[in-house]
Specification:
2 strands; 226 residues; globular; 9 helices; two-stranded antiparallel sheet; mainly alpha
Length: 226
């Protein structure tokens, strides 16, 4: 029975699902936008922080760095320790934080556009599992575990229709919160300052680049979803 269930889950991941009607997609986007704009944003801010720190960790690891720790705090701040011996990898890892949520959202939108909608949930679970190994404080551990548990319940037990809706919600959230996060960037410390030190270019320039990138990701992602 367990083997049959596992086989069914793998089949579902590889299958394609029908996209939602445009009107429903727009309504979901508006609902997510309202959550991000209202005071309720603070409740889900940690999800954006996970994507932000996950971006640092993923790119740092891809360029040969060892992810020593990821920490998150209730105020939405976080820190990823992934030493890289300078060069391009160190710079890209620095930039990956504020473009991380948007990049993940754009990837999810692409999967949805080609019909692999349920795969968005399983890919998110895979990334959360990788992040779980690196977290080093209790709050971050709780956030990753709770988020992963909710995703698993949907991916494992919910109907395909509910899984589809959740995949769209996650994608809208990453695209919209990614732009909102970089628009709210406040100096002088942070990733932009680190990028400025690495490139000898002003920090405001990098903030502008990340804002532009997040805006482009939102436009392109919205077109893919619609």
């Amino acid at each position: 029975m367990a083997a049959a269930t596992h086989h069914t889950m793998l089949d579902q991941i590889g299958q394609t699902q029908a996209p939602l009607p445009t009107s429903i997609v727009v309504l979901l986007g508006l609902a997510v936008f309202a959550v991000i704009m209202l005071p309720t944003r603070r409740v889900v801010q940690s999800v954006t922080t996970m994507a932000h720190e996950g971006g640092h960790a993923l790119v740092g690891w891809a360029f040969g760095g060892k992810v020593k720790s990821v920490t998150m705090k209730p105020d939405g701040s976080g820190l990823t320790n992934v030493p890289i011996p300078g060069g391009l990898g160190d710079f890209l890892s620095t930039c990956a934080g504020y473009i991380g949520p948007s990049a993940f959202g754009l990837a999810a939108a692409k999967l949805i556009s080609i019909g692999h909608i349920v795969a968005v949930l399983w890919l998110a679970l895979l990334l959360l599992a990788a992040l779980l190994i690196t977290v080093r404080n209790f709050f971050a551990l709780c956030v990753v575990l709770v988020t992963g548990f909710v995703l698993y319940l949907f991916a494992r037990h919910a109907s395909v229709a509910m899984q589809t809706v959740l995949a769209y919600v996650i994608t809208w959230f990453l695209l919209l919160s990614g732009l909102g996060d970089v628009l709210r960037y406040k100096g002088p410390e942070g990733d932009a300052t680190d990028a400025a030190k690495q490139t000898h270019l002003p920090s405001w320039l990098w903030v502008g680049v990340w804002q532009l990138g997040a805006a482009v990701a939102l436009v392109v992602g919205a077109k893919l979803l619609l």
